[in-house]
Amino acid sequence: MPMPTLRRVLTAASAAVGALVLGLSTTPVQATTPLNYAALGDSYSAASGVLPVDLTSPLCLRSTANYPHVIAARTAARLTDVTCGAAQTKDFTEAQYPGVAPQADAVTADTDLVTLTVGGNDNGTFINAVTACGTAGILSGGRGSPCKDRYGTSFDDEIDAHTYPALKVALRSVRAKAPQARVAALGYPWITPATADPSCFVRLPVAAGDVPYLHALQAHLNAVVRRAAEETGATYVDFAEVSAGHDACQAVGTRWIEPLLFGQNVVPVHPNALGERRMAEHTLSVLGLG
Questions:
Q1: Contact, 116 vs 39, CB < 8 A?
Q2: What does the pLDDT read at residue 32?
Q3: What pLDDT is recorded for position 217?
Q4: Where is 79: in which H helix or E strand?
């Protein structure tokens, strides 16, 4: 290349670089404002039984490794965590325990994000169904469907009659506090496999015919959570597909939910630390936050 032409090329390149540097130095960097994040819900949100325990509210059996803390860490959000073990939908607007404020009080007009898992404790659905079917399974030696035979549609009927309208009231109480917030209602990851696993009976003593009965009951509850979310403008986070194969009958390191017996958490039939991380990751994916 002739010398004059080379000089012109170098001069032009130098000017372009200078303009770029000048532009970078004079344009202020816009700092990302952290999300104001309120986490509500029951023991599946609180990660009851997972260490370490959040000592700021010992009655709630809340863990600092729960999915809200994972979400907050991944997004650098400002977290207000009022999740509480045994919470029901009514505890969004009423005090669950003395000194434990209604959960919806944590939501304010400047809240950007709300997550929650709730509904399983209404009518004692989870504890009553698991206890009843576990007892019936032991007495039957794992044969038949004694729980389904005795209780039939009673659990499902209570979900339709009571849990569904209560979920809508709870979600509307959140929406009233923060009309502009993004609200995510999480479904419950699978507790049981779709069909019986004979090797699991010692850890989850449910009769073979009652395993699909409990599975269908959980699917019904999740469908009601989805319906209530959609009717109140919330985003439903579905775990039906991603949690398949991670139920309480799976091995340590695979299962997200601990079994009724011989599990690793002090609170059985609840998510372990892996389950909480996976719940957080799937929620972030659904919301487009990570």
A1: yes
A2: 77
A3: 98
A4: strand 78-81
CA distance 81 to 37: 8
Q: Which residue has the tokens 């009655």?
A: 59
214 φ/ψ angles, rounded to the nearest 5 degrees: -65, -40
Q: Across the strands, what pairs with 235?
A: 184
Instruction: Say if residue 240's pLDDT is above 80.
Output: yes
Interacting residues of 213 by C-beta distance below 8 A, sequence separation 6+: 133, 145, 147, 148
Summarised one tens digit per residue, pLDDT across range 247-265 is 999 999 999 999 999 999 9
Residue 270 annotated as catalytic: yes
Q: Which of 69, 215, 270, 282 is catalytic?
A: 270
**In whole angstroms, how large is the CA radius of gyration of the chain?**
25
- Three-state SS for 40? strand
Which of 43, 140, 145, 243 is the catalytic position?
A: 43
Map residue 142 onto helix, strand or coil: coil
Alpha helices in the chain (DSSP H): 3-26, 43-46, 67-75, 125-140, 146-151, 154-158, 164-177, 211-231, 273-287
Share of the chain above pLDDT 90, in %: 88
